[in-house]
Amino acid sequence: MPEAPPPDIRYVAKNMRLDLRLIAEMIPAGARVLDIGCGDGTLIEHLTREKGADARGIEIDMALATRAVAAGLAVIHGDADTDLAFYPDGAFDYVVLSRTLQAVERPREVLRQMLRIGRHAIVSFPNFGHWQVRWRLLVGGRMPETETWDRPWYETPNIHPCTIRDFFALCRLDGYVVERWLAADERGLKAPWTRSVWLANLFGEQALFLLRQARPGEAPGPG
Amino acid sequence: MDQAVAPFPVVDHQRVVFADGLALDCGAVVKPLAVAYRTYGRLNAARSNAVLVCHALTGDQYVAERHPVTGRPGWWENVVGPGRPIDTERFFVVCANVLGGCMGSTGPREEMTDSEGRGLGRPWGTDFPSVTIRDMVRAQKRLVDHLGIARLLCVVGGSMGGMQVLEWAAEYPEAVFAAAPIATAAHHSAQNIAFHEVGRAAIHADPDWNGGRYWETGRVPARGLSVARMVAHITYLSEQALTRKFGRRLRGASALTFLEDVFEVESYLRHQGSTFVRRFDANSYLTITRAMDYFDLAAEHGGDLANAFRGTRTRFFVASFSSDWLFPTSESRALVRALNAAAANVSFVEIQTDKGHDAFLLDEPDFHRALGGFLRGAAERVGV
């Protein structure tokens, strides 16, 4: 007879992507959360069950949205590019966009909406500044295909790739304070590059940012 | 269909009568108020497991059992029953015949009463006052109170049933823990009204209409009511569904003879029409289609649909069907956006199907999974 798994295994969210765990760690108990591009609702379920959060989601893929709803989660079929505008100001404590920013039509507008409807935004995206990406373009002269950027240019959904430094620049431009940030490898393990944006931009495969709106008179950028 | 149609069989519907009656939106009072209803499953000790099902235009309270008039299975047996998405082993399911209906609730077919509630010895007929979706919901609220249920776990319904669900959530938010408006809209569109008007015109044009006092002649306006049903039935199906079921096939012939050819789709519609008149009252049809046409939830709340749900704690499940052109997904999406604007807790899916508006009544596994999951999630929250 196989040994029963230890009781805490259930929660460690065996099936939850590691980057979602990093995001979950940033969100305090009882928060109101909107997860944009929530997939089958793994993060929402985790936040609801483990943190008593009021967590909701938007998912563009109908099959995934249906699966999330069938699991009893408050998920709507919708599109980050068009549906955020309908939420009132400050409706959420945290608005999450994981691995989706590079795939939306208007990333700048989506970020603006996130920080309008939420007090904080948590954004993760694959870093186009990673050395392998640079190397392949430099040496091969072709659009880079890596573990992270795994679709050819003509069918990739990732129409707005950016680097970690690009993202910092946008935050400065639009007046967002970076409360926390970190770079991670493909599996979402924290990487020790956070002391240097330059190193993180070279070696981090994924980036994760916690943002808020700058207060009047406050300088944007790293908080 | 020239024959006089026999009057309905007399059936004793289970019902509760409220002697004080009901004040309607139009200003009239119907007194007494009778609400015919059916229940399935058992109410738990905490009275927290009640699910109210709201039926559509031509539905009734016989949700999950053999219909006493038609002898056919209940209209939502694939959704309501033991082990079904609305599981009667877990939930106490209630469905009431709508105010204005013809299966035992107060309506045009029932005996007319005066302001003291005394019977006048003739049906209401066209003298039955105009009712609204909100009036229907108020009548249901009386029933729910009568059953001793302070808060419904869920109110669920499709089409006109969905309109009632929305009205419930707007009117009695504290009495509705979860709401599932399906294949519906927050108002009846011009196109919806137009189709209804064709149906009403057909009834009015029937020689047996007799100004609505057809009980005097013993003949019902069966041809008109049948045509109304045929037109409406077309709107319940999609073009793909009609093509898949009938195409251009002929009845009893493989090629056109130009004599008495009947396309299969024609004979199907005629059958729909002729069976309908044996169970439905023409004056009820007029009353209820009007109630749907009047429905505009945003207008009831200062022109902003979000106002209808401001501050609500009800959890919503909105579902639409991709080939439904009578209550298209765009209407459901507008509803979801209004709910988002009101910061409501909402789930929304559009089910991919070619079955049109009728899909909410049919075997749609994705829909059933989503509805069942939503309901289980709500039940978990209240500890049912």
From TrEMBL, chain B:
Substrate binds at residues 229, 358. InterPro entries: AB_hydrolase_1, AB_hydrolase_fold, HAT_MetX-like. The keyword Acyltransferase applies. Its EC number is 2.3.1.31. Gene3D superfamilies: 1.10.1740.110, alpha/beta hydrolase. It catalyses: L-homoserine + acetyl-CoA = O-acetyl-L-homoserine + CoA. Residues 50-362 form the AB hydrolase-1 domain. Homodimer. This is Homoserine O-acetyltransferase. It comes from Caldovatus aquaticus. The lineage of its organism: Bacteria, Pseudomonadati, Pseudomonadota, Alphaproteobacteria, Acetobacterales. The gene is metXA.
